[in-house]
Amino acid sequence: MTISIEDLERQVRELRDIEAIKQLKHAYFRCIDTANMAELKQLVHPEATTCYIGGSYRIELKNREEFLEMIASSFHAECVARHNGHHPEIHVQSDTEATGTWYLHDDFLNLRLMVRTEGTALYRDRYVKVDGRWVVRHQSYERIFERVEPIGKKPRLTVNTLAITGRRLPGKPSRPAKAKRRSKTKRKR
Questions:
Q1: Do the beta carbons of residue 115 and residue 154 sit within 8 Å?
Q2: End-to-end CA distance of the chain
Q3: How many domains is the chain partitioned into structurally?
Q4: How far, in Å, are 2, 130, 177 from residue 180 at the CA level?
Q5: Residue 84: which CATH number?
Q6: pLDDT by residue (tens digit) across 68-106?
Q7: Cβ neighbours around 90 below 10 Å, total
Q8: Is residue 183, in this structure, part of any structural domain at all?
Q9: Residue 21 domain boundaries
């Protein structure tokens, strides 16, 4: 089988576009879990639309600013988050348009409300290339399963990036109970 230079160039360009979109989505999840709003803004088109459907919610947003505000309000300093997107199915439609389906597994602890949400969903995205860079033009997910449970006791976290980078909410923050100190002095017998 022979292949022309033009076909080979097209295939390489498509593979590079697929890899660039994978990098985009991986950065997207990282930015959400670390509340990196400045970088997240660069990954999403100004006119991006959003539709997230969960067990008890449907979120529809009309543009990037609404999306960024929702993320900043949701992934605040009293939360812990982990979003893993994997099994990408990316289809390049043209030099400037592509679609992608991602399998999401997420775990989210809201320590102010003492609620944990864990589940999976299928993301269905549309991407556009602007000035040589891929960005999200539309993003949606629908849950495959979602479990919401109360958190009985605050977890002992040794690290929580959102506690540092997340938005501070007004009102009284939820504070962990102080640990009792053990005395280092020996008791006399």
A1: no
A2: 89
A3: 1
A4: 74, 56, 9
A5: 3.10.450.50
A6: 999 999 999 999 999 999 999 999 999 999 999 999 999
A7: 19
A8: no
A9: 8-165
